[in-house]
Amino acid sequence: MSQSPPLLQVSSLSKRYGRLVALGAVDLEVARGSIHALMGENGAGKSTLIKCLTGAVRRDAGEVRLAGRACDPASPRDAESLGISTVFQEINLIPHMSIAENITLGRESFRFGLIDRKGATQRAKVAIARLGLAIEVTREVGSCSIAVQQLVAIARALDVRARLLILDEPTSSLDRAETAQLFDILRRLKAEGLGVLFVTHFLDQVYEVSDQITVLRDGQHVTTRATNQFPRFELVSAMLGRALGPTSSPERTERACRESSQAAGVCSVAPLSNVSSSTPTQSPSPDNYRELLTVRAVSRPGSIERADLTIATGQAVGLAGLLGSGRTELAKVIFGMEPADAGSMFLDGATYAPRSPRDAIARGVALTPESRKTDGIVPNLSVRANIVLALQARRGVWRSLSARRREEIASELIEKLGIKAAGADVPISSLSGGNQQKALLARWLATEPRLFILDEPTRGVDVGAKQEIERLIASLIERGMGVLFISSELPEVVRTCSRVSVLRDRRTVAELSGDSLTEERVMEAIATHG
Amino acid sequence: MASARRINPAIAALAWPLAALALLVLFNVVFTPGFFSVELRDGRLFGTPIDILNHASKVAIVAVGMTIVIATGGVDLSVGAVVAIAGAAAAMLVTRTQTPFPLVILAALGAGGVAGLCNGLLVSRLRLQPIVATLVLMVAGRGVAQLITDGLIITFEHRALSSLANAAFAFLPIPAWIAIALALATGLFARRTAAGMFVEAVGDNDRACRYAGVNDRAVKLAAYAFCGVCAGLAGLVECSYIKAADANNAGLFLELDAILAVVIGGTSLSGGRFSLAGSLAGAVLIQSLTKTLYMHDVSADVAPLPKAVAVLAVCVLQSPRVKDRIAALFNRGRA
Q1: Do A400 and B200 touch (CB under 8 A)?
Q2: How far, in Å, CA of B116 to CA of B131, rounded?
């Protein structure tokens, strides 16, 4: 075995998009008959690596060998013919066609110039049986459950005599039983000598099924180790990029808050005069501790299971957890974007069950979404329009702000948050990431929210803007606002928040505050076996 | 770098249609004798330019509503059929009933509004593709108009209704005034209130709008309803012009001219920023081109071809890639 070259050998693979280095000299080896997990947080380069392997994008440099032979697929189809098959997270089957048709689509065999239907059905049956499944192949794909569709996609991938099977987050929409079934199939394929490259965010699953783990971070290869010699805690720290040691001393919110409020003028965002509720400054002391938001056992299938959370006025609570752990999903539930199915929420002591963001906004909740580009900015509209949008939406069209008032609000916030733009008139897309983010914060500050949910507010933002955003959050807390802070960067979470709720596999698994709130403890909570 | 001297995008959008119009005018000055002869008779101007204005008004009225719908990222293919419905309703009311004229107008506009609401509901509630949703009424609408007129061409002798398109006010035909007033009122409402911002924001990124609490469904519903009312107004003008309601031919292919006018006017079919002035200029450009072709004895059957070429030219000039190339040329010249 050791003499023959590995099934897949990737050396010094690099890929840039413009100035952005998506992958910088990454190495990877997948052996025959093994399941190899590819792990990493957002922007680690997992998807770029997969795209390079499947020919969806061309690599800039580096070498890929499949069973010792150089391999440079020009398209996903090309990759398939070389023996690299991929099943993507979003299932790309054709819902109105039968399972058999989907499996053989694009590689039909012909008899007398016509599609050989019998032969196709037969081949599909063989492919399905190989996975140990008992499904009628003439069924329409659209009528099958997501899990079955996923398995059909795998069957389709295997039909071309694949040697390497790449699975991109195959379990994200499957329940536990379905995942177990998928894993049985993976083990079966592994026994047949197939190599499997498996991308997932679920730690438990990685330990359940994989033989080897490769961790990527910021486009760099961090480590590759045998799964049974890679403790969870070390895996999490490799993914998050935290060297553990005595250096990570957590700062408390109060201190951070006090320091920053004396620092830059950013912190003194005064209440806008057009909003009646100009809250007097409250300091978050135990005497006037007032619960703002309570979340009890909130669930929504496929996104969050029995989450609990409490936020007080003048308090920043952090949500920590790996990508896909349910952080963003919980935020969306609280904001009414994806209403909860079960559980209860209370805001200011009254029942709170938002069915839409509009409901949430009416109750004084604000959210800056994780994906600034697709969910946040309105790219071709001016910075000014982007800033007044939420406030104007709450007032409705019949209570329009005058052009002068819009100008005042925008320029006031542009100045206070230090948004660097050529003017309030330029399209927001012409601003840098950090300034776009600040403009989105300004959009919500204009509505004077009581609860501010910040989902990855510092992602893709330069260091200076990061600090300003952190200081801004401190000043909001000082003024009595409740903040829910979501970030993949643990030091930031620990620095900003006085309490941190840890999510794993869509459940709340720990709450840390006081002296127990350290980066190590958060990572332990993320890594602990459920 | 380029931000030092920014041109107002609304003016930039107007540049191409106006340039094309200027070219066309120049062509006619040289090659079409009598093109610009205008004379005053009975307190009213007559002549080719006035004809063009009169006919362009109908397209312009529809294009105002179409601009708003396109800005939300949609399109309304049913406007031609709605013109027929509104015309049929008005003609039936003036011939078969004693309904007071203001009510006739309201009924025609109301019919357009209801049609627009149907489109809007399909698009905003059922989330149908705008092209498909409005295709339904584009086909079914003519049937509705046939039902109203019982399959006949309804001619009428009604002073008020027929003077709508055939009388003049302050030298200009009334439809031109209607188009100008409609565009002005719409522009004022869109820009003085937040309505224009909502429309543009929804067309630019409706996901972000939902996160910001904008009621994107209500915005789309209102846009289609408004477009329907505009089509209803155009229906009144059209039936007044020929003093008859013809369910088969009223407003035929009007949706295409209106969409063209909007696109030539610089509003992107993918939604977002819109320019009402651009759409008006586009409507006048299309009508001028048609008239020029007729005056050079191009038959009505062949006329669409050169028209299409001209439209293609304007659209190519507006495409982002060509714009970038042109901008690069200018920048090189400056550097």
Answers
A1: no
A2: 14
What residues in B contact A395, CB-CB < 8 Å? 194
**pLDDT tens for chain A, residues 1 to 530:** 456 788 999 999 998 877 778 888 899 999 999 999 999 876 788 888 988 998 888 888 899 999 888 888 888 888 888 889 888 776 678 888 888 888 888 766 666 666 677 888 888 888 888 777 777 888 888 877 777 888 888 888 876 678 899 988 876 667 677 788 888 888 988 998 899 998 887 788 889 999 999 999 888 899 999 999 999 888 888 888 765 443 333 333 333 333 333 333 333 333 333 333 333 334 445 556 789 999 999 999 878 888 999 999 999 999 998 877 888 999 999 999 999 999 999 999 899 999 999 999 999 999 999 888 889 999 999 999 999 999 999 999 999 999 999 999 999 999 999 898 888 999 999 888 889 999 999 999 999 999 999 998 987 777 778 888 989 999 999 999 999 999 888 888 998 999 999 998 888 999 999 888 988 888 888 888 65
Going along chain B from its start, the domains and CATH numbers come out as 9-33+57-330 (1.10.3470)
* DSSP helix/strand/coil, A428: helix
* Residue-range domains of chain A with CATH: 8-240 (3.40.50.300), 253-375+450-527 (3.40.50.300)
Query: Which of A337, A377, A389, A398 best tests the B interface by mutation, with the highest count of B CBs <10 A?
Result: A389
Taking an 8 Å cut-off on Cβ atoms, the answer to whether B213 and A385 are in contact is no
Beta-bridged to residue B42, according to DSSP, are none
CB contact under 8 A, A426 and B6: yes
Q: Do A400 and B193 touch (CB under 8 A)?
A: yes
> Which residues of chain B are within 8 Å of residue A387 when distances are taken between CB atoms?
none
**How near does any CA of chain B get to the CA of A389, in Å?**
7
Q: Do A425 and B272 touch (CB under 8 A)?
A: no
Closest CA to B202 of A398, A397, A426, A414: A397
Distances A68 to A5, A32, A71 between C-alpha atoms, Å: 5, 12, 9
Residue of B nearest to A441 (CA): B212
CA-to-CA distance for A239 and A215, rounded, in angstroms?
A: 6
Report the gap between the CA of B63 and the closest CA in chain A (Å).
Answer: 22
Best of A377, A378, A437 to substitute, by most chain B Cβ atoms within 10 angstroms, is: A378
Helices B101-124 and B79-96 sit at what angle, rounded to 10 degrees? 150
Q: Select the residue from A337, A361, A381 to test the B interface by mutation, using most B Cβ atoms within 10 A.
A: A381
DSSP letter for each residue of A24-77: EEEEEEE-TTEEEEEE--TTSSHHHHHHHHTTSS--SEEEEEETTEE---SSHH
Chain B CB contacts of A424 under 8 Å are none
Q: Please state the ipTM of this predicted complex.
A: 0.88
